[in-house]
Amino acid sequence: MNEPRIAVLIPCFNEEAAIAKVVADFRAALPGACIYVYDNNSADGTAAAARAAGAVVRSEGLQGKGHVIRRMFADIEADAYVLVDGDDTYDAAAAAAMVRRLLAEQLDMVNGRRVAADAGLAWRRGHRFGNRLLSGLVRRIFGNRVQDMLSGYRVFSRRFVKTFPALASGFETETEFTIHALEMMMPLAEMDVAYRERPLGSASKLRTYSDGLRILRTILVLVKEERPLSFFSLAGLLLLLAGIVLGVPILLTYLHTGLVPRLPTAVLATGVEMLAFLSFTCGLILDSVARGRRETKRLAYLAIPRVGLDGEDNEALAASLRRTI
Q1: What are the CA-CA distances from residue 164 to residues 95, 169, 228 (Å)?
Q2: Which CATH superfamily is domain 6-226 in?
C-alpha cells in the first residue's frame, strides 16, 4: 500500500513573528508531510519567512480566512489534511496522533479541542465565553459531538475536503466545518491539544464582537438552509402567537357587542395569521428541497474513495504511518 499523502495547510495574514517556528515545528512532527503556507495579502515578511523555513508558499488575493480555505481545498491533493493557524498557539506535536487516528479509524474530521495551561493568557477577553456560547448553540441544534467548534486546529480526510462547500469568507468557516460534518453525519472525533498565548510581535486578527456576530449569523443561516422545517415552523409559531395576541381582544369585543371597533388591528391580525400559515408551508416545501441537497452531497461524498483499511490494508497502513509520521 502507498504511504498516505499528508498536507499541512497554514493560512496566514501578517504572521512574520510566528510562521517560521510553526513551519519548523510541523516539519519535525510530520516529516513526511508537505507544508503549504497561503499568504493572504500580508503587509509584513510572512511569505519570505515561510519560504525560508521550507514551506511551499502560495497566495490568495481575496481577504478573509474563508477565502483562503476555499483556495487551499481546491488546489491541494492529499489523503489527510492538517489545518492549523499560523500564530504558533497550537501544539504541533499533537498532529501525528491526530493524523494517525483519522486514518486508522476511518474518520473524516479530528477536531483539536483547545486546553490552555494558562487560560487568562491564551484566551482573549470574551473569546472563551463566546466559544462556549456558540458551540453550545450548535450542539443543541445539530448534535452534541463537537465541544470546541471554533478551534483552528483540525485534521480532515480527502472525502471531507473535496466535498466541503466552503462558502464563508472569514472566521465563520470553522462554523461551516462543524455543521457540515454534523449534518452529513460524518465519522469524527475530538482530541485535546495544548493551546498557548501568541508570541511577542503577533496580534490576533479576530474581532471579538463583529466576528462573533458574523458567526452567529452563519449559524442562523445554516439552520435555515439545513433545517428549514424547524426554522420556518418556529417563525410561523411566533407569527401565530402574535396574531392571536392581536386578534383575541377584537374577537371578544365582537362576541359581546357585535361590533369591530378596531378594523385596522383586525386586518393586521388576519394578515399575520396568513403569514404564519405561509411560513409553515414554506418550511414543508423547503424541507423537501433540503433533503434533496443532502442526498446530492452524500452521493458526492461517496464518490471520493477512502484510504483502504480492510483486511491486510490495515497492517500495511499502520506500517506506512509509522514511517511517515
Answers
A1: 21, 14, 20
A2: Spore Coat Polysaccharide Biosynthesis Protein SpsA; Chain A (3.90.550.10)
